[in-house]
Amino acid sequence: MVSDRSPKLDRVFHALAHPARRTILRSLADREQSLTQLAAPLKMSFPAVSKHVRVLERAQLVRRRVVGREHLCRLHAAPLKDVSDWTEGYRAHWERNFLRLDALLDQMQAAEADARRQKTKGNAGWRREAEGSR
Amino acid sequence: MTTPSDREVVITRTFDAPRRLVWEAWTRPELVAKWLHGWDDWRLEVREMDVRPGGALRWIWHGPKGEQMGLRGVYREVVPPERLVHTEIFDEDWTGGETLVTLLLTEETGRTTATMTILYSSREARDAAIQTGMADGMEVGYQRLDRLLASIDGEA
Fold it and tell me: Which pTM does this prediction carry?
């Protein structure tokens, strides 16, 4: 269980609470990228991107290595698991209701189909009767 | 489930039924009582459910040991069969004020996607609600879902 008093989780939520940082994580999901490559689609200055990457690094969502002049960043997704664990119970609570709703909707659809069948059968029976009386 | 902002929780779920029926299951008192009772040994008493703008909502959950948990609210927007907005607040309010619940139903090839946005009064309120749900989810555990499904089949 992930405690709700976790500085680690605070850092992850803080890191995720900015659209630019979420965009960075998404683009790192595909491959390792340099700060310059990350900056291009964000239309941000190099220092601005660097600042965002530092926040992601502090949350341990990004690892950085320096190759020559390039700073290469890659995604470290493990802390995201804590976020999904933390929200899982809430989801599970609703899912119990929804499983029952699934069953109820099945029953409603079956009842409607039945009613339709009865109606067609009723009509057919009526027709047969009408024909028989002729 | 996602948390798009500090105060919100969004729950999305797809149902294998047309929107018309999902809307009914969400707005007809006798149907709501059949599925929205949370734990399987609890019962939901729908005391009042006046589904029109300004109409009142009064739900009381009853536990197996006589526990009670009441909630009241007001419907704000009722647009069948796609949009239902209501406020809600628990009698013993642990969420720090009223929450606003928006339900959006969209249908595609006979399947309906329900998107429920719950807007809490503060970030602390939202986090407390998630945390409560978490404790509950752990207590119940996934193995109970099987039993739950079996009991639904039995009732049907």
Answer: 0.62
